[in-house]
């Protein structure tokens, strides 16, 4: 999304006296994406609060900023934020439900959605008080270079995780599509069915040329296409639930194993048939509370699925009749729509495969005999959507790196190309060597997503919002939110690392 320089905010009168604040944002400099020049120049004195963030000699200096009025309607803002929320995380939600149970998953989903909305409330209020609509600038104003690095690093890591999950989908879905289109019965070692080779080819011949363009604005149309693909995917998941019978697939291996071990006598075979029936009923019965070694991935997967915070401020900037209350209404509608979509996708995916669901739901359908042509269409649609989304995800990563390393430098094509190639190469290496998409969801969700949802918005709010006392309900709530975020991040990371160590030791002993 192109960056534009921002002047004073249009704040509605109902917004906690934030209309009394006048903030200068002339330190927003995105050399890679120049702003539109307008004829309106605003001169005003820096207010006392912002003197905390600037050098004393600059505090009273008149500044010249450019005001850009928002032009995006309420409906389109809802559409844009929904696009920012939905992503590859939807493919891992059924796996999360299988390892938590229906009831526990719904509880976690509600809490994560509410916490995400609360963090957006903190972020918007901080943006009004801090005088910036960019995450990195809020971090710099709050904690100096450390805050800027923390914000930029979290945004970069989150986007790298999202980009890697998209490439991971290409790695495992494209070979299946080629196999189905060519009518092959099984893999025979052909290079064009090797996912590692395919992602390198797709990255080099399709993703890289699009990512090297300086202006990716026209690719914004793919966000709408991506959302439509996910809605189509949801419809197919619900439809297929009533076509795929669990015992025909989920219990097929258990039936074969039992039959092979009981062919010696008719009596044993009859007993085994009864046992098979009971096993089928047990495996294909939904569970409401589940606790196992994979349950630790549930919260990171959910937080990964709801992260949209880097996009909130740009959408807020472009909102027509911009006000914090109106942006919160946009957030409420978007989160409710995605909450329903996530819940339906997780529920019907789980009720189709139960505990046999894999960490990437779409890949699970490849094990169903005769899944139908419709899933070839779904796979092609999702593949096109995620492939065309990768260049858009590279956009903020490259911009963030430029801001950190060479914010005051003019645009350089060789640096632009080098950063793009390094980002794409790193993502490909990550996808090639990380065994499952669950690990990507888990690690990014426990680290960057927790930072963006819990820690950074609350920390910025505590530091930058000066009009509320430290003992106010709002500040105490922000402190508790910060503490809970730290606990979630440390706890999730610890449990995930312990699970990795356990799996590595188990594989080594085998």
From TrEMBL:
It catalyses: L-alanine(in) + Na(+)(in) = L-alanine(out) + Na(+)(out); L-asparagine(in) + Na(+)(in) = L-asparagine(out) + Na(+)(out); L-methionine(in) + Na(+)(in) = L-methionine(out) + Na(+)(out); L-glutamine(in) + Na(+)(in) = L-glutamine(out) + Na(+)(out). It is a multi-pass membrane protein. Residues 18-28 have a biased composition (Low complexity). InterPro entries: AA_transpt_TM (IPR013057). Its main location: membrane. It is found in: Cell membrane. GO terms for cellular component: plasma membrane. The chain crosses the membrane at residues 78-96, 102-124, 191-211, 218-239, 328-351, 371-395, 416-434, 440-464, 476-501. The keyword Glycoprotein applies. Signal peptide: none annotated. Residues 71-497 form the Amino acid transporter transmembrane domain. One of its GO terms (molecular function) is L-glutamine transmembrane transporter activity. Residues 1-29 are annotated as: Disordered. Belongs to the amino acid/polyamine transporter 2 family. PANTHER family: AMINO ACID TRANSPORTER, SODIUM-COUPLED NEUTRAL AMINO ACID SYMPORTER 2. This is Sodium-coupled neutral amino acid symporter 2. It comes from Leptobrachium leishanense (Leishan spiny toad). The gene is SLC38A2.
């Amino acid at each position: 999304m192109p960056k534009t320089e921002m002047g004073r905010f249009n704040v509605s009168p109902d917004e906690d006296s934030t209309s009394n604040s006048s903030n200068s944002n002339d330190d927003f400099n995105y050399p890679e994406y120049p702003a539109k020049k307008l004829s309106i120049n605003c001169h005003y004195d820096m207010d006392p609060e912002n003197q905390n963030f600037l050098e004393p000699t600059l505090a009273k200096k008149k500044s010249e900023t450019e005001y850009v009025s928002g032009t995006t309607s309420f409906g389109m803002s809802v559409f844009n934020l929904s696009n920012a929320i939905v992503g590859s995380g939807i493919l891992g939600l059924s796996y999360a439900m299988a390892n938590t149970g229906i009831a526990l998953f719904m509880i976690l989903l509600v809490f994560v959605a509410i916490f995400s909305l609360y963090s957006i409330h903190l972020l918007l209020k901080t943006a009004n008080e801090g005088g910036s609509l960019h995450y990195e600038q809020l971090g710099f104003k709050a904690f100096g270079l450390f805050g800027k690095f923390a914000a930029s690093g979290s945004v970069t890591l989150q986007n790298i995780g999202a980009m890697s999950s998209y490439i991971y989908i290409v790695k495992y879905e494209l070979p299946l599509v080629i196999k189905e289109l060519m009518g092959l019965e099984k893999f025979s070692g052909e290079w064009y069915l090797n996912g590692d080779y395919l992602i390198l080819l797709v990255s080099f011949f399709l993703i890289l040329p699009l990512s090297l363009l300086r202006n990716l604005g026209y690719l914004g149309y793919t966000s709408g296409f991506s959302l439509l693909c996910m809605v189509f995917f949801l419809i197919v998941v619900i439809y297929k639930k009533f076509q795929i019978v669990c015992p025909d697939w989920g219990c097929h291996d258990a039936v074969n194993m039992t039959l092979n071990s009981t062919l010696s006598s008719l009596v044993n075979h009859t007993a085994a048939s009864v046992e098979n029936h009971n096993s089928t009923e047990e495996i294909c019965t939904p569970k409401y509370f589940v606790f196992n070694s994979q349950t630790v991935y549930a919260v990171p997967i959910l937080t990964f699925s709801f992260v949209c915070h880097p996009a909130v401020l740009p959408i807020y900037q472009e909102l027509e009749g911009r006000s914090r209350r109106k942006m919160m209404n946009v957030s409420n509608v978007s989160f409710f729509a995605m909450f329903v979509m996530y819940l339906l996708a997780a529920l019907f995916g789980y009720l189709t495969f139960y505990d046999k669901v894999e960490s990437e739901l779409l890949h699970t359908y490849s094990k169903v005999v005769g899944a139908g042509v419709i899933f070839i269409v779904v796979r092609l649609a999702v593949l096109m959507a995620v492939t065309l989304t990768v260049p858009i995800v590279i956009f903020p990563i490259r911009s963030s790196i430029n801001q950190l390393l060479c914010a005051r430098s003019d645009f350089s094509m060789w640096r632009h190309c080098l950063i793009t190639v390094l980002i794409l190469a790193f993502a490909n290496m990550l996808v090639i060597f990380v065994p499952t998409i669950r690990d990507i969801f888990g690690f990014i969700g426990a680290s960057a997503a927790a930072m963006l949802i819990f820690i950074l918005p609350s920390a910025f709010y505590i530091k930058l919002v000066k009009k509320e006392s430290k003992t106010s309900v709002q500040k105490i709530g922000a402190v508790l939110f910060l503490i809970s975020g730290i606990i979630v991040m440390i706890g999730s990371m610890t449990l995930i690392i312990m699970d990795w160590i356990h799996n590595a030791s188990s594989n080594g002993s085998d």
